[in-house]
Structure formats: structure tokens, C-alpha cells
Amino acid sequence: MGLKRICGWIIRKKSIGRIIIIEVSSDSVKPSVLVLKEEREPELFKLGMEIDIGTALCFEGEEAPEQRSARGVEYIARKIEVYAKPIEPLPVDTMGKVPALLDTRIKYRWLLVRNPVEKAIFIIRNSLLNAAREYFSKNGFIEVQTPKIVAAGAEGGATLFKIQYFENDAYLSQSPQLFKQMLMAGFTRVYEITPYFRAEKYNTTRHLNESWGIDVEQGFINSVEDVLQTLENLITYIIEYVLKNNKEELEILGATLKKPSTPFKRLKFQEAVDILRSEGLEISETEDLSDYAEKKLGEIMAGKGYELYFIVGFPWASTGFYYMRDEDGVYTRKFDLDYSGLEIASGGQREHRYEKLLNALKEKGLNPENFSFYLEAFKYGMPPHGGFGLGVERLLMRMLNLENVREAILFVRDRTRLVP
Ligand code: AMO
To answer: Does residue 245 register a pLDDT over 70?
Structure first.
């Protein structure tokens, strides 16, 4: 058997008489288990006595012929190089035996990623994004980057972070919405993996102030159904990819992820209202669903066997100015995708006709001058198009049954956190 070199940090050490067992956390969720025997390797045993939890080291060794540990792969070490010892006791238990409060987990995330459970979440986050990129590249989407310093918001003024941009006021981008639409003047399928900055004032388990989106826009569509299909295929691709590539991580997290059944249910907004009203909830026909209503609908849909479902046809009164309206003017081609009672994505078919778009802006009380850079893109042959924004942390949260969206991002930005 060949010699391997593995680098990482000691997360556990146990001495049993003349044997020392050291667990090293590296880049996979299963630690490497070093078994040092005084009789077999006296020098390394001596070194093993001196090093403790938190030490950064590399070792060379071969897999033990008899594997006795259920926790990781056992090695017989030939060489150990110590790179750094902790200068203070660790502030958290990187083995995860002593559960830390969420606040502590967030503060010490960079250290806790040595812990297999915490590491598993972020290995799966990496897979989720790999899967998305693989899906897009197989399906003819090109990856684009749009500015994060912008002059106008796409999602309304209430959640904009204002910044000083030389002599002008500017904002941090809430969504690449306007730019990805403008690109429909010259590309037919684009995607962007991007931060969203939103001044959400409230402390909820679903909101961050800096979150990540997987954004899509596609042109020459026949109807909003083309966009629903892309999102459904993307989500299915991501979940299947994680099921295939992250068995160990899912097991460590105790996650019960399943391949979603397709097609996802398409529930009309008005149907959702009727269902919720029949359960005794007071629901407005012209406003977005409240968090409570969303959750309640999730329970009802779960009872019918639907985990993932679209809510389609939101009323114009509740949406952004850019969604295409139905002939009646009351409903739009806007949709949400909900995953067990949580909105994870939102999108729709856009208004691509210049005059109608201009009127929509005015009707929403917005000043077309502030959007002139955007409106111009609709003058020179803008095809019918649509797209969506999918929240990375919200999707991960639901896939892994996490309780708080803060568990799904390495460094949290919320109302009270600006460091680390
Ligand atoms: P929306 O505002 O619904 O739509 O955002 C899309 C998705 O992004 C995620 N998300 C968030 N996640 C955590 N914290 C937040 N503060 C937060 N805000 C949004 C959610 C949400 O479903 N312009 C449209 C997209 C489009 O039509 O293309 C938009 O941004 O999962």
C-alpha cells in the first residue's frame, strides 16, 4: 500500500496506555485516524505525547491493514511534521461533542469548519454551486458578472444600502435583475452567481443582509413555462448531484434529502388564497403571502405530497414593475418556488415591450428617468424573456433541514454582525 501525505488539524486525542490515537481533520468530513504505538514507533509516540488538539500538522503514512475506527480512515504514520501549535486553548470544541450556540458557531465558523458536521455543510454548498455551473454549461447558459455598485434598485427602495460614490449617491445591488434583462438584447441565456445586499431590518431565520443568488435570464421564450422548466430542472440536477457526490456529508448531517418528484406542482396564486382561506386564514388577494401563510401552505402541500411547488400568477398589485401582466391586467407572470413552506426562488416572464414597460414604471410610482439606462435596452429588438433568482442559502437550508439561514453561509452579515 502506498504512502500518503495528509495535512490538517488535530481535533481529538486519546491515550490508551502505550497507544495514542490522534484524529486529524483535513478537507473531507471523515478525519484521518493516526494510531501511534510506543513499541512500534517510539519517536512518533513521544511526539504524539507533546502535541494536542488544535495543532496543525502533516503526516506521511499508509492505511492500516486492519481498520478498527468507525470514525475515519486509520493510518500507520511514518513521519509527522508539526507546523503550528495553538498558543491558547481553543474557544470552541472542534469535535462538536459540546454543541455550541448559533452565535458562537457564527463567531468561530472559520475554526469550527474543522468539525466534520460544520465542514459537511460547506462541502455540500460547494457541490450545490458546482452542480449549478455544470447544469448551466450543459444547457447553453453563459456565466456573466454585473455591477454590485448601482444607481437604482430592482427590488424597491426599502431594502437598499446607500453608499457614497464620489460625487453621487449609489446603492449596493439587491439583485442583478435589471442587468441580466438588459443582456437579453444580445445573449439568449445567461446566469450569474452573485451576492445580494439587502437592508432587511428584521431578525428572522430566513433573512441575511448579504446573501447569494443563482440568477438566470433566458430570451426568446414561448411563455413563463419555459422558465419554470429551467428552474425545475436546475433544482432536480442540484439535488441529484448532491445525493450522488455527498453521501458521507449527508450521513454526518443526518439529512434525509430525497430526489424530488417532478413535475413540481404549479399552484395558481388564487388557488393558494382559496386553500388558505378554507383553513380560516385571512388572506388578501392583492398582497404577497405573509410568512405565516407561506408556512401554513407548506404544511397543507406536504399533506398532499408536495415538497416543492410553484405559486404562479401573482397579482400585479404585489409585484415589481417589470413582470408581464395578463390580458386582464390583474395578474402577472410572476412566480415563486416554495420548498416546504419557504420561498427559495422568485421570477417570471418580464414585460419586453417598451411602451408597456414605461407605463408599468409610472403606474408603480417610479421615475422613468432613474431607469433610463435600463429602458434604452428595450428599444432595439428586445425578445420575450424571463428568469429567476434562487437563494443559495435558502435552498441549502431546506436541503439539509437547517433551522436558520445563518447556518448555510460561512461569514454572516445580519443586523448585528459586521465581523468577522
Ligand atoms: P427575490 O427578491 O424573491 O427576487 O429574491 C430571490 C431569492 O433570493 C433569496 N433571498 C434571500 N435570502 C436570504 N436573505 C435575504 N435577505 C434574501 N433576499 C432574497 C430568496 C429569494 O427567493 N429580481 C428577483 C429575481 C428575478 O425575478 O429574477 C428577485 O430578486 O431565496
So the answer is: yes
Q: Is the pLDDT of residue 69 over 90?
A: no
Is 394 considered catalytic here? yes
Which DSSP letter does residue 183 get? G
Interface confidence, given as ipTM, is 0.85
- Ligand 1 atom closest to 345 (CA): 22
Q: For residue range 275-330, what is the model confidence (pLDDT) as tens digits?
A: 999 999 999 999 999 999 999 999 999 999 999 999 999 999 999 999 999 999 99
Strand partners, 150: 171
198 is catalytic: yes
Kindly name the residue from 38, 63, 155, 200 that is annotated as catalytic. 200
Return the exposure string of 346-374: e unless at least 16 CB atoms fall within 10 Å of the residue's CB, then b: bbbbbbbeeeebbebbeeeebeeeebeeb
The CATH number of domain 116-147+175-408 is 3.90.1010.20: no
Cα–Cα separations (whole angstroms), residue 212 to 38, 215, 386, 406: 51, 9, 20, 12
Is 327 annotated in the active site? Answer: no
* 200 is a catalytic site residue: yes
* pLDDT confidence bin for 342, thresholds 50/70/90: very high
pLDDT (0 to 100) of residue 155: 72
- For residue 208, how far is its CA from the centre of ligand 1 (angstroms)? 11
| Pocket around ligand 1 at a 6 A CB cut-off | 154-155, 175, 177, 196, 198, 200, 207-208, 211, 213, 215, 343-348, 387-389, 391, 393-394, 405
- Work out the end-to-end distance of the chain between its first and last CA atoms, rounded to an integer number of angstroms: 43
The domains of the chain are located at 4-89, 116-147+175-408
**Closest residue by CA, ligand 1 atom 24:** 389
* pLDDT (tens digit per residue) in 210-229: 999 999 999 999 999 999 99
pTM for the complete prediction? 0.94
Smallest CA-to-CA distance from 312 within 277, 271, 344, 274 is with: 271
Residue 1 has pLDDT above 70, yes or no: no
CATH topology of domain 4-89: OB fold (Dihydrolipoamide Acetyltransferase, E2P) (2.40.50)
Q: Is 138 exposed, middle or buried (0-12, 13-18, 19+ CB in 10 A)?
A: exposed
DSSP 81: E
